[in-house]
Amino acid sequence: MYLSWQLPKIPARILYRDAAALEKAVNRYFKRCYSKVYEKITEDGVKSIVGMVDIQGRAIYKMVEQPSILKMLQAIGMDKKEYNRCMAGTLGQEQQDVMESATVLIEGDYVNMLVAGEGDSSGLKFILTSTFGYKDEKSVKVEGDLKYSNMTDAELKTKMDEIEQNIVEGALDDEEK
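^ that's the sequence the OP posted. Answer follows.
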């Protein structure tokens, strides 16, 4: 588990005037949060150690520590005020791009965890709403023509079956061509 007092002594505040240095520090943090997956279980149940890759040949990584903006800031020696200045572009466009990319990666992890049902959903929703501006809407405003809105459940099911059948027949016709 990640404990803040186990961190090496880092100055309370590092000013990143160089975007390359900032990117290097951020990448070092993310490398700590993820590790390459090397285990593969074969059909006969035997584990073999191989470098696993996805369909595009990229290495597959597994999260070993949940990344967060605050942990990242602590690891790279940046305070919240400096982060906000960086995100506003005050330190330069390149630094802003680095921090925006890191923030999007962290946001994506939270969304993926919520969708996959990993972790505490109320905690993930809180982080997504308070940090990333998501809204937990209870109702949806629908505009436009609702041609199926007055159908009964049975009529709607029949219409959905008809649409599905048309899609299947269209796909079969495409295969024959």
